[in-house]
Write a structure and sequence with these properties.
By secondary structure, the chain is mostly beta strands. The chain is built from no helices and 13 strands. Strands 1, 2, 3, 4, 5, 6 and 7 form a seven-stranded antiparallel β-sheet that branches. The protein is elongated and about 65 Å long.
Length: 196
């Protein structure tokens, strides 16, 4: 279940855990009255990865620049992590990989601007790396390599191999700042392509 310091009409705390990225919890946090949201479970759960999906603030509205995550276990609250410098906007996907914790509750606090949180996802295991590849109209393989939440690029060489013109073919690319990469496809490429 989810409870919060406050919520807007039609944007309730429960919407931050309803499994839909098109709904959100909206709060009216401020520096003088920070907002918080708390998730709780009937029985203890394991936490390994935490993903927070946010929505863009309204034009001209203040944005979140910091949040604190706390866990409740063994009868008391403990700090889990803090993100943000208090000056620059938080990313729209906040992804944190933490040592495995057994928790009963999770609280996100210190929200000193209106919060629009689409979803809070708690995972008991590490999210796998995500690789998405496609072809473009220019004859290239285009793709992206990120962490399992799509929050951070993974800077590791992507290798593609297959057969072109009846011969073995291999090419590689290094992802950019967003995890994006491009590999030119050779003429005569046939059969499956393997990526490593």
């Amino acid at each position: 279940s989810a409870t919060a310091s406050d919520e807007s009409i039609g944007h309730f705390a429960q919407q931050a855990v309803d499994g839909w990225l098109d709904s959100d919890w909206e709060s009216s946090g401020s520096a003088s009255n920070p907002s918080w949201i708390e998730l709780s479970w009937l029985a203890p759960v394991q936490l390994r990865d935490l993903v927070i999906h946010r929505r863009l603030p309204d034009q001209g509205a203040a944005d979140l620049t910091h949040l604190k995550a706390e866990i409740y276990s063994s009868g008391s609250w403990h700090d889990l992590f803090e993100v943000g410098d208090g000056k620059n906007a938080l990313p729209f996907i906040v992804y944190q990989h933490v040592p495995v914790q057994t928790i009963q509750k999770l609280r996100l606090s210190g929200l000193t601007a209106p919060a629009n949180i689409n979803e809070v996802e708690v995972y008991s295991q590490s999210l796998p790396t995500w690789l998405d590849v496609r072809g473009d109209a220019r004859g290239n393989i285009v793709g992206v390599l990120t962490d399992g939440a799509g929050a951070h690029a993974i800077k590791a060489e992507v290798q593609a191999s297959g057969r072109a013109g009846g011969n073995p073919w291999k090419a590689a690319a290094m992802p950019g700042d967003w995890g994006e990469f491009t590999i030119p496809m050779p003429v005569g490429l046939t059969g499956p392509i393997e990526f490593t």
